[in-house]
Amino acid sequence: MKHSQLKEIIKKKASKIEFAIVTNLENGLSEIYEPGKSLSKEFVIHKEQIDNFFKLKKNGVIENTEIFIETYIRPIKVIIVGAVHIAQYLVDFAKSLNFEISIIDPRGYFASEQRFPDMKIINKWPDEAFKEIETNENSALIALTHDPKIDDPALQHAINKKFYYIGALGSKKTHENRCQRLKEAGFNSDQINSIHGPIGIKLGGRSAPEIALSIIAQLVSETYKK
Amino acid sequence: MKNSFDEKILEEANDWLNANQKVVLATVIQTWGSSPRQVGSRMIVNETGDFSGSVSGGCVESAVVRECIGLIKDNKPCKKIEFKVSNESAWEVGLACGGEIAVYLEQIN
What we know:
The complex is a heterodimer. In chain A, 40% of the residues lie in helices and 18% in strands. Chain A is built from nine helices and ten strands. Chain A has a six-stranded parallel β-sheet with strand order 7-6-5-8-9-10, sandwiched between helices. In chain A, strands 2-1-4-3 form a four-stranded antiparallel β-sheet, sandwiched between helices. In chain A, a hairpin with a 5-residue loop joins strand 3 (60-61) and strand 4. Chain B is α+β, with helices and mostly antiparallel strands. Helices cover 22% and strands 30% of the residues of chain B. In chain B, a hairpin with a 4-residue loop joins strand 2 and strand 3. At the A-B interface, helix 1, strand 3, strand 4 and helix 9 of A face helix 1, strand 1 and strand 5 of B.
């Protein structure tokens, strides 16, 4: 592989474009492929199989050939509501796990740049903030403020958009009250039960990094269940 | 759903190249049986044998490093190597887990 091609791959990854690297294992030739775009003479005869690997988000060698395909997919979007202490540790974990984090917090004093360097924080109420983030059933929500004014609109958005993971911080009692409010707002029990509350796997930890670890563990587990 | 699987090895390869090191990229391209790392797992090796990332659980990395240095010395663009189950009684490199893997090595230049 040429260094220039490596740089192009890194650039594509950073811009969150879905693509594949196709390599001929015999002669070492490789190229970057994006669905809908053309392939060179070297690889065009394998286009159908390459598209198939791409559809299945699969890496591997095409059967009976020496053509290897590696697909790059977009990182999963995780929206954190509440730029609180736990969120600072979640940002660290998410980086190594390749989740794409957005943080929403209308409270300016929490969402300062000093607390979250190199991190874009949306300093708006959830209803407004979600207009800036494209979300779908492959998105996840971690609600951390346990303030109904901030968490509830975000939870409602996540339920309506069928996020694959929704978690909300708070004690059992806090969660019961939350469920009651959502019921009164017209959500059914399946929708309400889709919320992981209290959030996180049972780890027993109490500190902010420990709670962040239990949340991120649950998020990873739910990601692979789907 | 599959999470995007990315250990930032390519970014590190770029840093090494920018520091004028020679870099070989090793990628797991096929696995059979219970292999420790999935297809697409990567490691990089430079001409002095420094390496980052992994293609197994530490079982075959030393052999991969040797092969990568050889590739740089012979100035070859690429090579495919396979590792099979290790023989416990012999001092050889292999996969103790009983799996088999194929690793593709390519020089970046």
